[in-house]
Design goal:
Elements: H1 3-64, H2 69-87, H3 96-102, H4 108-114, H5 117-133, H6 140-157, H7 163-182, H8 185-197, H9 202-223, H10 243-267, H11 272-280, H12 282-299, H13 309-317, H14 324-339, H15 347-361, H16 370-386, H17 389-399, H18 406-423, H19 428-443, H20 461-468
Amino acid sequence: MRPSTALRQKNRIQHLRRSARRTTSQWRRTLTYWLGAVLVGVVAVGFAGTADWAARARGRLLHWDPYVMLVVVPAGLAFSTWVTRRFFSGAQGSGIPQTIATLHIENFSIVNRVLSLRIAFAKIVLTCFGLMVGASIGREGPTVQVGAAIMHGFSRLLGTASVSARRGAILAGGAAGVSAAFNTPLAGIVFAIEELSHSFEQKTSGTMLTGVVLSGVTAIALVGNYSYFGHTDVDVPLGTAWIAVLTCGIVGGIAGGSFSALLIRFSKGIPGRIGALIKARPVAFAALCGFVLALLGLVSHGATYGTGYMQARAIIDGSEHYPASFFVLKFIATVVSYCSGIPGGLFAPSLSVGAGIGGWIEQYLPHTTPGAVVLLGTVAYFSAVVQAPLTATVIVMEMCDNQQVTLALMATSFLAFGVSRMICKHALYGALADRFMEAAHSAAPAPIYTRGSAAPAVETLAEQVEKKD
């Protein structure tokens, strides 16, 4: 055999060996991400079960004596705020702003802290504690941060060096969290594209889609293939029934835009002596918020406590009718809960407020099916709050297992989005995330974010760094 032929064969063998090693490494990485997505589904189901247990515990407390909440809620919110600020800074609020921010922060030491498994565990425990003591919060937003933290943890375990691959894992985890929390796989995908990343990159699309599917399948395997709000068999035919689209879109848009504007304004701080007092005494302020929540709970006979899921479902299926005061009080309770600084999301309370708005409007629109008007009110307010009309449409459509109203839902959602934009120029989660990145930028010497436009976040990353200094 000539030397040149032997050299070619040797090079070919070396190439095959390198290809085999590369394929093995790729499969190991893929299987690890799959395991992470399954774990997101398991954790999301466990989170939901624990949140339901917390709601039942609160119900037993209310049954024993409703007035005990005048002590329980202030003490509970004060304790949650103290624990969060003292030991788990970064766990405050929804969790979606933090997840969005980590997709744009370049300093991964900060990302590692925000998406640590320690913070994820605290997010679950403190959110459930908040639900037990009566805060008007939800678990879906926190599940997004928890899912992102789990997938980010697996990315670190694999020693991923590529920034795009790390961000792809975070994006996949957040989308998987939505999918498992609501049992809405399509909504998880749309949410990741529309809200979390604002783009769809080919490099990360496979990881995201696989994560959503596996987490959703895991949730179904554990709790069954259910619809969040059950099945509704209603329709909104073209014609006079579409007056409900205009009405719900405008009313829901105004209410949701006002809600977002209030939270963004509070995240920037209240000027004057009151703002300085709140900043100096956050735990006392949380206790005051708790006392306000307890008063709202007494006035509403307990309807404003917790996620509002039971009330929303009852309004949608027509088994209960609540006065207009319900959604007004629930609106206030959610604002107060979020401003207190405790961990907890906005998805479920927003759906509850939206259902209350729809239930109030439907009595004035006898020519439209009541259940359909409630769904339109739900999607209108939710779309106006998150300013993500496609996500709102798909979530409500999948949660009620009804494709007949898709066109009406989408029209209402986009109308509410437009109205909300006139009141609140920046999307809530985007605005809160930008605040978070600004705090990180002021606390770290290296450049941290590359995002061009302004968006969300509240809190205390800068304070955390100052404490360490």
